[in-house]
Design goal:
Blueprint (H helix, E strand, L loop, with lengths): L12 E5 L4 H12 L3 E5 L4 E8 L5 H4 L2 H16 L6 E4 L3 E4 L2 E10 L2 E2 L2 E2 L2 E8 L28 H22 L1 H9 L8 E6 L2 E10 L5 E3 L4 E2 L13
Helix pairs in contact: 3-4, 3-5, 4-5
Length: 240
Amino acid sequence: MALPELSIPPVYESVAIAGSGAFSAACARAEEIGAGALFWSRRTDRLDCAVVLEPEQPRREALTVLYAGALALREAIGALGPPNKPVTFAWPDRIDVDGACVGGVRLAAGADRDGVPAWLVLGAEIEVTGDPDDPDPGRHVGRTALWEEGFGEVEVPELTGCWARFLLGWITRFTEEGFAPVRREWLARTPGLGRQVTRLIGGSQIAGLFRDMDETGAMVLADGRRFGLELVLDGPTWRL
């Protein structure tokens, strides 16, 4: 069987892996391989990819690049899907299509050097085909796949390349303009803002009214409590 083709901008170094685990592979080699390496899985049922970054900002600011990755993923999904299909966010790292989770973004950080992470790995995972042999895909409450949402037969390499292209634009904007425009765009696309939230994330029970997301990417509840973005370093909240 021919391997799937991947079309990405030349600024990236393509690193294909067999099976799952692009994120783990990128973390293992981040120090060695450096910025711009795009690890991607040859799986055909799920988007599984990760990019190595070398931030220049202090850790707290650098971690907010997670939201740039989410915005790029939303645009990639939207570009390949049916018009007017809602693609939205749940804090801090989840992607929903028509109100159901399809996956999300994730982040890992190397040890600090003078307050700046030596590297970041920004990952993306999306359920694309679902299980074609599942007689009742709707039984997985709150979860879905792109094919189940009317995305035709979107192919994983196509979605990977699309995310890589949109990510370049968002990383450039994040680098040049800071977190403010990224924060504004992300907040405009989360239906959770102003609503009650009850979730267990990274061992922390979050319950209250989601009032805002501050300049560090933390969730701010109406009672003033803040839940920092560092929670994502413990693993994705949307696990597939």
